[in-house]
Amino acid sequence: MIRFEEGDEMSANDKPSAVNHRNQREFIDLCKKTGDAVIVEKQVDWDLELGAISRRATEIDGPAVVFNNIKDYPGQSIFVNPISTWRRAAITLGLRADAKVPEIYAEYIHRDANPIEPTMVTDGPSREVIIKGDDVDVTKLVAPMIHDGDGGRYLGTWCMAVTMDPDTGWVNWGTYRFMVHNKRYLSGWPFAPSHMGHMLRTKYLPFGKPMPVAIVIGADESSHLAATSSTRKGRSEASLAGGLAGRSIELLQALDSKLTFPACAEVVLEGEILPDQIAMEGPYGEYPGYRSGEMGSGILMKVNTISHKKNPMLSMDCTGYKDCSSTVTALGGGIGVQRKLEAAGLPVTGVYIPSEGAVHLFIVGVKAGQGGRETTQKVLDCLTDNRTYPTKILVVEDDVDIFNLGEVLHAWSTRCHSGRGTLIKHVEKGAQQLTPCYDHDERARSAGAVVAFDISWPQTWDPTEIPIKATFNAMYPDSVKKQVMDNWKAYGFQS
Ligand SMILES: Cc1cc2nc3c(=O)[nH]c(=O)nc-3n(C[C@H](O)[C@H](O)[C@H](O)COP(=O)(O)O)c2cc1C
Ligand SMILES: [Mn+2]
User: Fold this and answer.
1) Is residue 315 classed as helix, strand or coil in its secondary structure?
2) Model pLDDT for residues 439-489, shown as the tens digit of each residue
3) CATH architecture entry for 12-316
4) How far apart are CA 209 and CA 196, in angstroms?
5) Do residues 230 and 88 lie in contact, with contact meaning Cβ atoms separated by under 8 Å?
6) Quick one: fold of 344-472?
């Protein structure tokens, strides 16, 4: 199988084509054509109603939603759940809306391997309205009360936070939640090991320096997708976004700093993370599909400048069970996990992180005949060595389609020995603290546990001993299968 490395160049005629959307509004137009976006003109309340509609829409794998008439906020609209389904992930990457998940993964890998440098421009829609200093009031932008029980109103969900490494000039884009604290302040919660968290802790806090930051809302989906990906430190997410879009992304420089972000963004909040103050943040209906944690201390951003399009359209993820976060992390994260396993020399053939598992369930495909307890142990060790997101890992051989949950469940139920095939590992650091099944003590210590299942036949068996699947494909001679397929409609079946 082909192994891709981040930033690998491929031959020129293999370059990904430009996708059909250059900004949020063009993406919505594409989604409308395929039934993947609904425009709501009826007035909705920003206080829970908007969130409840958005939550239900994503849970039924329904369309994304544009709310054009939001109580108390005339002239502003919100685009909700941009990439919370595989269909919209496919559209983002320039594929047919009904492209299958393996095609979507393959397209992402191809585009990721072909980054395109961005281009600087000097204007963008966000420059239509500029508000500075004492005139700044973030509560004038519509930030919904998304879930009942949230600690406050969230303005940053499907956003990108832009920061710069002061030593190297590397600009990081990452998607992290931001809650309205008051008129001039937002509080946020980037994980310590995230690029933004790490930059803040190592490059600004020790020197008592405020960290310049821009929160960018309503940009093109290629850039938003790049901001959610787990790429290596130092790699430009703007170039990755270019690869995902198949064209150079136009960037604008911030008004108050050297930070750069997509010029097409509709709303930009510029300011600084203060080195000497914290603020209460959360709780929030989170990507594991629960309200996770209590209100706790978060980072504090002072907003100095707001720039936005006249009548701006903001972007929002209605986070929770089956949200943008678990869908896009399944994609960029799944590919990152595959690369990590390949680099460790494991015979991996693919990784699927189904959105229903909320980034807690990893399905790892390995070459037929090369599964087994030893391989499963190595996969488990590799995926718990640093940041531990999964609580369950299924290691299946590649006669099982990892993207077909029915097949995976069948193989797990029937092939995995409940004693010998079950490997449990306790993790003492680096476990994801939002994991719902961890107790308070484990969360405080970033500790947890992961179970990996070896879903392979005993390696000691002679191949002739392996049970034949009782399926159409496995149990009949080719000649009979062909006869049946040739006559399928003639028998009276529709499809
Ligand atoms: C809607 C959404 C919200 C997210 N919120 C957070 C968050 O609040 N904190 C965090 O550390 N990661 C959050 N993530 C995950 C990060 O975006 C992801 O880990 C990404 O790789 C971070 O970028 P970085 O690698 O540049 O740090 C969120 C992802 C999505 C899609
Ligand atoms: Mn990054």
Assistant:
1) strand
2) 999 999 999 999 999 999 998 899 899 999 999 999 999 999 999 999 999
3) Roll (2.30)
4) 15
5) no
6) UbiD C-terminal domain-like (3.40.1670)
Residues 6+ apart with CB under 8 A from 448: 388, 391, 426, 427, 431, 432, 435, 438, 442
In angstroms, the CA 86 to CA 101 distance is 7
Could you tell me if residue 275 is left (phi over 0), alpha (psi between -120 and 50 degrees) or otherwise beta? Answer: alpha
In a 13 Å sphere around the CA of 60, the CA atoms on its Cβ side amount to: 8
What is the distance between the alpha carbons of residues 16 and 39, in angstroms, rounded to a whole number? 31
Map out the domains of the chain as residue ranges.
12-316, 344-472
Q: How far apart are CA 64 and CA 89, in angstroms?
A: 12
Query: Which of 158, 171, 175 is the best mutation target for the ligand 1 pocket, counting ligand atoms within 8 Å of the beta carbon and taking the most?
Result: 175
Query: Do 77 and 205 touch, CB atoms closer than 8 A?
Result: no
8 A C-beta contact, residue 224 and residue 203: no
Q: Which tokens sit at 422?
A: 């079950």
Name the pTM for this structure: 0.94
- 181 CA → ligand 1 middle, Å: 20
| Contact (Cβ atoms closer than 8 angstroms) between residue 299 and residue 190 | yes
Pick the closest to residue 158 from 285, 319, 44 (CA basis): 319
List Cβ neighbours of 481 (8 Å cut-off, separation of 6 or more): 472, 473
Q: Which residues contact 385 (CB under 8 A, 6 or more apart)?
A: none
- Tell me how far the alpha carbon of residue 67 lies from the centroid of ligand 1, in angstroms: 24
On whether the CB atoms of residues 316 and 282 are closer than 8 A, the answer is no
Q: How confident is the model at residue 386 (pLDDT cuts 50, 70, 90)?
A: confident
Q: In the structure, which protein residues have their CB atom closer than 6 angstroms to any atom of ligand 1? A: 157-158, 172, 174-177, 189-191, 194-196, 228-230, 317, 319, 324-325, 328
Of 173, 228, 235, 326, the one to substitute when testing ligand 1's pocket (max ligand atoms within 8 A of C-beta) is 228
The alpha carbon of residue 157 and the mean position of all alpha carbons in its chain are separated, in whole angstroms, by 12
Fill in the amino acid letter for 340. Answer: K
